[in-house]
């Protein structure tokens, strides 16, 4: 799996003045945005579309990309869970 | 989203599986670092994709909810109990299940992160591990955010009333 989205977000955060990565992100998420528009009546879809684009670019600027979990650490967690030794809080 | 563990999904990709076998057959710090780096990249992509997709949908539902709220009367609270059957139908949201105006206003003051956690725990009835995986958090953080969100809700309801 190519890290397309994370690469775009990283580019946006590093070069916030450049429009290219922002446009690529919008293009990449376009199908999901269009699908979300069906939640509202047709006359309100243009407003929602603009709102979602604004939110998407804002989220791209502030999304924390760093994650500290390595493969073996995550594998250990998965095994603990599947073995039934870990119980989530309800 | 799949319930298959992240590491299993990761190994389903041949290039990553190749990295894994190399790290297991010839264990060295360098091979392990390469595997970890690939896994972190994979996780970040999965979590980011999930976060953006769910948040976009959530915002659309919120807007529709606000629109309908202006034109319909207020109904009693219909919060699903934690013992209810899980709702997996796409398009559901916790904000859409709240009809009490005070509770709705209090809920809207929560952060997106807090709303997402409450939605996952109370609407979709996901365990903390699954919630954490979907939202890109650690399980203890889910519990902490849930506890803080419920406390905020209680306080804000008291303030609003």
Structure commentary:
The complex is a heterodimer of chains A (90) and B (161). Chain A is mainly alpha-helical. Chain A has one domain. Chain A is 66% helix and 0% strand. Chain A is built from four helices and no strands. The longest helix of chain A is centred in the first third of the chain and has 18 residues. The radius of gyration of chain A is 18 Å and the shape is flat. Chain A starts with a helix and ends in an 8-residue tail after the last helix. The mean pLDDT of chain A is 83. Chain B is mainly α and 161 residues long. Chain B has one domain. Helices cover 71% and strands 0% of the residues of chain B. Chain B is built from eight helices and no strands. In chain B, helix 2 runs antiparallel to helix 3 and helix 7 packs across helix 8. Chain B is elongated, with a radius of gyration of 20 Å. Chains A and B meet through helix 1, helix 2, helix 3 and helix 4 of A and helix 1, helix 3 and helix 8 of B.
Summed over residues and divided by their number, the pLDDT of chain B gives a mean of 78
- Main sheet record of chain B: none
Helix content of chain A: 55-70%
Low-confidence sequence ranges of chain B: 73-90
Mean pLDDT of chain A: 83
The secondary structure category of chain A is: mainly alpha
Fraction in beta strands of chain A: under 5%
Please state the overall shape of chain B, judged from the principal axes of the Cα atoms. Answer: elongated
> Can you tell me the number of structural domains of chain A?
1
Fraction of residues in helix of chain B: over 70%
Based on the model shown, name its key terms.
heterodimer; A: 90 residues; mainly alpha; 4 helices; 66% helix; flat; B: 161 residues; 8 helices
What layout of secondary structure does this protein have?
The complex is a heterodimer of chains A (90) and B (161).
Chain A: H1 4-14, H2 19-36, H3 45-62, H4 71-82
Chain B: H1 6-11, H2 14-25, H3 29-71, H4 94-97, H5 101-108, H6 112-123, H7 128-135, H8 139-160
Helix pairs in contact in B: 2-3, 5-8, 6-7, 6-8, 7-8
